[in-house]
Amino acid sequence: MIILSKLADxxxxxxxxxxxxxxxxxxxxxxxxxxxLPQATVAKVLKALAHKGLVTATRGAxxxxxxxxxxxxxxxxxxxxxxDGDIGLTQCSVHAAGCARTNYCPTRPHWAVVNRAxxxxxxxxxxxxxxxxxxxxxxxPATAAPPQPEPPRYSA
Amino acid sequence: MIILSKLADxxxxxxxxxxxxxxxxxxxxxxxxxxxLPQATVAKVLKALAHKGLVTATRGAxxxxxxxxxxxxxxxxxxxxxxDGDIGLTQCSVHAAGCARTNYCPTRPHWAVVNRAxxxxxxxxxxxxxxxxxxxxxxxPATAAPPQPEPPRYSA
DNA sequence: CATATAGAGGACCAATCTAGTACCAATTGG
DNA sequence: CCAATTGGTACTAGATTGGTCCTCTATATG
Lengths: 156, 156
What we know:
Two copies of one chain form a homodimer. By secondary structure, chain A is mostly helical. Helices cover 47% and strands 5% of the residues of chain A. Chain A is built from eight helices and two strands. In chain A, strands 1-2 form a two-stranded antiparallel sheet. Chains A and B meet through α1, α4, α5, α6 and α7 of A and α1, α4, α5, α6 and α7 of B. Chain B binds a DNA duplex through residues 5-7, 27-29, 38, 40-41, 43-44, 46-47, 50-51, 57-65, 155.
């Protein structure tokens, strides 16, 4: 299962890229080129980030985007939530009102714990952390991963 | 954003229900009635759980399912992985080989940390934990499904 | 042995969601 | 004014998902 949508993933890539040059302003096209992502899609992602106030936008000629805060003060949770919406494991975590089971579902109360754990995991990592470099070289090359033994692996 | 698919959510509900009566064997229809989930879908979920060895199936007349292990020894991570597949935040976490960005993507190495945190959050909760406690008293009788002209929508 | 029951394993479909694009309005610098 | 750039929305093709159904195999029982 994939947890993040592609767009949210792009969001993180874009935001991380911006964190690398926080004080410089860049327009959508430049960011798309730098990250090698489709330009129109990057523009869409940036709009979402701007909407949530994670980046500030300047319109008009010579306009562009820059991070609204220090890279260390923006967490993955915020970036992801800006694009994919608030984080919840189950439907009822996000739209409790819409669940007909709410009244008798015995599992519901327990999701909150896991929910919080996931949220904290995403909140604990800032753009600065994502940007930090060293692991780049150390990370294994992209060769196909060997078949893994059972049960759940959280690949990577 | 919703992290679990509906099917995975159902899986947890079904597994939790089975944990409540671990030694009793029940067939798919009975479990569907007790959990008020669509029967054919519950059957599908149970097959997936059986495939991963989380429940054991007995075929034939008087057949059915039961948990393969103690409820305390089955984690949410396993149930979810049985249905939604292995857990990964991003595409590249699950299918690293398929990502053209792999070679230069600077964010990739950092997902592993978050990935593991999410996995651990799901691994830390057992079916016993989900079942534990209060909310259960309110749960309607398990075996005799109350007359239901129309199945309720739990699309949430 | 015959029959009814129940899971195994797919095939299939409709509905929804997603990624990506396109378009036009608003804003700003030159 | 003109060009560049974001804001916002609408749209489409394709993928994904939830849900159903059908056929095959295994088992209990009379």
